[in-house]
Design a protein that fits this description.
The protein is of the alpha/beta class and 195 residues long. It has helices at residues 13-24, 31-41, 44-54, 61-72, 90-100, 117-131, 138-152, 154-160, 174-190, and strands at residues 2-6, 28-30, 81-84, 109-114, 165-169. It binds BIS(adenosine)-5'-pentaphosphate (AP5).
Length: 195
Amino acid sequence: MRIIFLGPPGSGKGTQAKLLSERLGVPAISTGEILRSAVRAGSPLGLQAKATMEAGELVSDDLMIALIRDRIASPDASRGFILDGFPRTVEQAAALEKLMAGNGPGLSAVLNLSVPEAVIVDRLHGRSRDEGRSDDRPETILERLRVYHQKTEPLADFYRGRRLLADINGMGDVSEISDRIDQALAVAVSSGRTA
Ligand code: AP5
């Protein structure tokens, strides 16, 4: 299966993508994790992305599309993949369609997690205290949310128009949300959209 997680910062995309990856046996590909590990390693990609990420802005479409092109062509992604954090703009979504055209099955489903903004802010403040992620500072959280509404939220309509979007309530226990995801994927399977 080829699955995308959509949703605002802190909605649980990473948490659920990792769990779903274990259930399906396909890799969870987090562009945020790839960038953070590049920053830690001090690689050219990390040097390019660091300041942008710390400001809560988006890294350039060209850089992200090239990164995903290479990653989804890796052998471990040949049976499917779960994208967490990509696409984030309509340009990235259009580029993904081109990359996938004529290269195996299309997307199976786009899982759109929704969580109220006050809960998001609480979750990310909690993570800031526990883990000290550099973009979880209060002012950066607000900027990440602003950027999400402006550039990423329109993707819900983009994928709804392609009959791929499943809205998932992202509130509750992690296992409860996983169950909702499995139900949404079962619907996608029964409607013949999966491979
Ligand atoms: P990225 O790492 O993708 O950050 P994000 O989208 O802001 O997502 P988060 O990791 O904050 O949240 P999440 O939805 O994954 O939730 P999580 O499971 O972690 O991107 C970071 C930056 O990289 C971007 O700002 C940008 O600069 C750059 N970037 C990345 N991709 C890009 C792209 N395609 N284009 C351009 N730039 C890009 O959960 C959050 C917290 O909540 C955790 O502490 C977790 O334990 C907790 N939690 C999870 N589920 C629950 C639950 N059910 N109940 C209570 N707590 C929960």
